[in-house]
Amino acid sequence: MSSNLAGRHVRTQTSSIIATTVFFLVVALVLTGLMAHVVAAMTRSANEIDDARASRAARASIAAFVSRLSATTTDNAVWDDAYKSIASPGAADWAYENWGKTSEDYPLYDGAIVVGPDRSSIVSAYAKGKPFQPSVFFGDAFYHQVNTAADFGQTPVVNFVKTEKGIALIASQAIQPYEAEGELPKLSVLSFYKEFNSEVLGTLSNEHELAGLRLAAAPQPGLLNTPITDMRGRVIGHLVWPSKAPGSTVFRQVYPYIAAAIVILVLFLAGVLLVGASEARRLRQLAQAAIFEANHDSLSGLLNRHGLLALLEELEVSDYCPPRLYLVDLDGFKAVNDAWGHAVGDELIRLVSNALIACHPEVVAVARLGGDEFALVQVGTAARGDIEETILSLFAEPFKIDGRTIEVGASIGAATHDRDIPPLELLRRADMALYRAKENGRGRAIEYDPELDRERQRIAELESLLKSAIGNGTIEAVFQPLVSATTGAVTGLEALARWRTATGNVSPEIFIPLAERCGLIDALGSHMLKTSIEHAKNWPGLALSVNVSPVQLCNPEFAAEVISLLQELDFDPSRLTLEITEGVLMTNPDQARRSIDHLKQVGIKFALDDFGCGYASIGALRQFGFDRMKIDRSLVSALDQASNGADVLKATIALATALQIPVTAEGIENIRQAAILREAGCDQLQGYLMGKPMSALDISSKLQEQAA
Question: What keyword terms does UniProt attach to this protein (predicted)?
């Protein structure tokens, strides 16, 4: 019995071993089959994915080719100068100089054609810099495209066409002004074409990773292809290229290792599962930490910009109580960093962050967007003014850091999160309001208003108009007489800029700061200096004064440009006085000193303008060696307004006299003011009493009358 039991036990063990072996064999076979299926599927999918990518790349290459030529056409067709010139008698010459000649070696197009308003006459047609016949080269399709593209405001009409050389891309658009005023006449049409040649194909091949890309009349067996159609939808050619078949390539390379990989997979499956589970937990923890770091500021622990935008995206917007976004910018934070160092500045950021988090129960999130800019999200019924007052009250008392008393203020911009506003737009609106709050002064809170955007648009339009006005000479120079205090004779003229537009005059107080902000002040200054000197050459013996912006004087090239202009116009430097305000002495004194010294060496004089309304010191007057001082008109007008106005004025003139600096008084409007200034020692007078700003023609007439 025991043997039977032992036999049954052995058989049982054997059966168990066999069953286990068969089970693992079946599992191995199943795994092998599955892996083989997966490898085959991956190989096939990789080939299909790469083929699909290549097809998309081919279509993208065609689209990029079309887009480049379309953009080039718009840049040249929507052009005020082109619109005016093509309508002039010299249209053909102008078109050749700007387009026809360029086509010889220009990479963006091979030919340029201008068709007249009658849609049949060719004004100009050049291919590779040589005249050609578009109707012969393109056929009837050319005029059909021109007629389609002839309307104002229409985007370029772009089509592939069959040519006598092969296939070309042609783009057509009406030659038109940037903005139409009234109804326009029939427009001429500009067309650019680019041959779809091997050079273009090579460029597209490199840009879009399409090795072997070429043009064929029909699809090629075994090759991928994309059709090219003309304006009627007819196929006129195909882009063809070989498939890379990356899946098959990789499969052939890794095939010898697949069997070994199966064995290794079986042996290490258990260990991999254990290690994988442990690694998954670790990666999950790292991922959570990375997500936190990606959405939070490392210094303050607050949300960063990315985290704020994500929060606003997920925030539920209610019409009854829409969330509000407040941007807070610290006033005076840079001074803290400069005075106490970045360590104190960082501690101040942390203190402000903690204060903002707890400032109001309806503030659901606080973010730090930059160095000293914060954002708060409010959800609740509290009024905007309550939140803003609460925020501003945080800065009413100074912060204490390591025994130091730190005072900073805050400016606030607010915007409401309406249902249709995306987070980036909400952030932009709040930023616009914050910018206005900082412009209005410290400690202000401004709510976004659409007028802010309209004002920004008006400023942008005014910048464009200013650029055009400088270029076409619309900004004119007028001249105000400078009169001797003793003889009453005109001894010099000050040039002043005037901008007259169809809608009225634009004040220099508007367009000069605008020119400084948008980088046009150098061009405006050069225009005014050149125009003024050209007129002053007709008035020998008179000095010419021209105002110079601090931005100009801080330009290292300014002195050389002025000297070059004087040499070009053959104008005596000793007749020229450049008037500058004291602001330049504070913003960049070193560069200002270099420019002044360089110009004084050739005989140009310098006058300190608007003295008495700022912070110019006696030391600055001595250091920069001014040849003249101009008293600000506010001191002159104080003669009629303040009881001590005359004493202040006399003391100012006495200061200049002690420094041996001649004095000019501006803004003189009555005889009493002139008498007091003359008695105080002022040697030159300027103002409406002596003469208003006049055109060059009026100045010439006045000088002739004085001579008579």
Answer: Membrane, Transmembrane, Transmembrane helix
Q: For the chain, state the CA radius of gyration.
A: 39
Q: Is 441 left (phi over 0), alpha (psi -120 to 50) or beta?
A: left
Helix (H) or strand (E) holding 496: strand 490-501
Least confident segment among 39-48, 464-473, 507-516, 658-667: 39-48
State the first-to-last Cα distance of the chain, in angstroms, to the nearest integer: 156
- Compute the distance between CA of residue 44 and CA of residue 41 in angstroms, rounded to an integer: 5
In whole angstroms, give the CA distance from residue 365 to residue 387: 13
Taking Cα atoms as reference points, which of 617, 636, 615 lies closest to residue 680?
636
Please enumerate in sequence order all residues whose Cβ is within 8 A of that of 263, keeping only pairs 6 or more positions apart, or say none.
none
Cβ pair 515, 466 in contact under 8 A: yes
What distance in Å separates the CA atoms of residue 221 and residue 598, rounded to the nearest whole number?
A: 76
Burial call 583-605: b when 16+ CB within 10 Å, e when fewer: bbbeebeeebbbbbeebbeeebb
Q: Token match 């003249």: residue? A: 628
The DSSP output letter for 317 is P
CA atoms within 13 A on the CB side of 477: 23
Cα distances from 232 to residues 143, 145, 323, 437, 524, in angstroms, run 14, 11, 53, 57, 52
Q: Are strands 409-416 and 167-174 parallel, antiparallel or unpaired?
A: unpaired
- Is residue 428 exposed (0-12), middle (13-18) or buried (19+ Cβ within 10 Å)? middle
Strand-pairing partners, residue 478, are 496
**Sole residue written with tokens 């420019």:** 595
Digit-coded pLDDT (tens) for 378-437: 888 888 788 888 888 888 888 888 888 888 888 998 988 877 788 888 899 889 888 888
Tell me the per-residue pLDDT of 502-545, one tens digit each, with 9 for 90 and over.
788 888 888 888 887 888 888 888 888 999 999 999 998 899 99
Task: Give SS3 for 140.
Answer: coil
Q: Which two tokens stand for residue 47?
A: 């080939």
> Within 13 A of 52's CA, how many CA atoms are on the CB side?
6
Using a 10 angstrom Cβ sphere, with 0-12 exposed, 13-18 middle and 19 or more buried, the burial of residue 96 is buried
How does DSSP assign 430-468, residue by residue?
HHHHHHHHHHH-TT-EEE--HHHHHHHHHHHHHHHHHHH
The CA-atom distances, in angstroms, between 359 and each of 276, 303, 414 are: 46, 16, 16
